[in-house]
Amino acid sequence: MKCYQIQKQKISISLVSVVTFFLVAWLIWSEAQYFLNPGYKFRFTTDGDLESKLSINVDLTVAMPCDRE
Fold first, then answer.
1. How far is residue 22's CA from residue 18's CA, in Å, rounded to a whole number?
2. How far is C-alpha 65 from the chain's CA centre?
3. Domain boundaries along the sequence of the chain
4. pLDDT in tens, 40-54
């Protein structure tokens, strides 16, 4: 009876190991494929309009005690 339980544990551990191996191998393969063949191609260009002005708005909050009490 004890020998049967040990064999059953070995089979279940082996099955988990094989499934984990294939899962990790698939993840590595899919990440390598994504790295080697990305779906997006990014293109960057500079702004050719040198005459335009960029407006920047800045809101400041200063935490100071008031002089008037």
1. 6
2. 45
3. 1-39
4. 788 888 877 878 888
Element (H, E) at 18: helix 2-36
pLDDT band at 55 (very low <50, low <70, confident <90, very high): confident
What is the Cα–Cα distance from 33 to 25, expressed in whole angstroms? 12
Q: In this structure, which long-range contacts are made by residues 48-51, counting pairs with CB atoms below 8 Å and at least 24 apart in sequence? A: none
2: its two tokens: 């004890």
* Single-letter code of the amino acid located at 9: Q
Q: What is the DSSP string of 38-55?
A: -S----------SS----
Give residue for tokens 């040990």: 6
